[in-house]
Structure formats: structure tokens, C-alpha cells
Amino acid sequence: MKYQLVASWSLVYLYTKKYPLSWSQTMYGIYTGYTLLLQGIAAFLIGPLLQKRIGMSDITVIMFSMFMTGMGEVLFSFCTKTWMVFIGYVIGAYLYYM
Q1: How many Cα atoms within 13 Å fall on the side-chain side of residue 69?
Q2: What pLDDT, on a 0 to 100 scale, did the predictor assign at position 47?
Q3: Residue 84 above 50 pLDDT?
Q4: Between 6 and 74, the higher pLDDT residue
Q5: What is the reported pTM?
Q6: What is the pLDDT of the chain when averaged over all its residues?
Q7: Rg for the chain (alpha carbons), in Å?
């Protein structure tokens, strides 16, 4: 799992440095902080909400997480503007909950 995360973050960095986004290191740092904040919110709010309030089993929560991961990655691949990347990550925020 550790190497998968490193590879994923490395590819995100390379994608955001190239055209059409052409981010600076500062902008990438802001994006990293934003994603970590959303991951924390997902871990403390969405996970327990799905398990306790809605009554999803662990397997169903994992499947939901995988689906949201895929949706987030597909949306990210079509981003051509900075605001698209930030809005698109809200959908994929559940990605690193597991």
C-alpha cells in the first residue's frame, strides 16, 4: 500500500507540473494540504456515518471507497483548470480513508 501511495502522489505531481495546469511548488503544497484535510474529514465523518448510521458492512464500505476512488481518478484525468482539480477531489476524498 505504501508504494502505491508514493507512485500515485508522484504521478499527480508530474501531471500538475505540466501544461495545462503548470502549477508552482506552492500551488502543489496548497493542493496537498487541501487533500489531506478532505481525507481527514472523510476518515472521521463519512466512514463512521456509512457504518453506524446507514448500517453498511465493512465490505460494502470498502467497495464504496473503491468506486469513489475510480470516479475521482477519472475526473482528475480530465481536469484542465485548477478549480476542476480542487472540486474533483471532493468526489475522490473517500479515496484514502481505507
Answers
A1: 12
A2: 77
A3: yes
A4: 74
A5: 0.79
A6: 83
A7: 14
Tell me how long the chain is.
98
**Degrees, nearest 5: CA angle 67-70-72:** 110
Distance in angstroms (rounded) separating the CA atoms of residues 29 and 97: 20
Which pLDDT does position 3 carry in this prediction? 61
CA pair distance 22, 14, nearest whole angstrom: 10
CA distance 76 to 83: 11
Task: Please enumerate, as own/partner, the contacts of 62-66 that have beta carbons within 8 Å and a separation of 24 or more.
Answer: 62/98, 64/94, 65/94, 65/95, 65/97, 65/98
Contact 92, 72 (CB under 8 A): yes
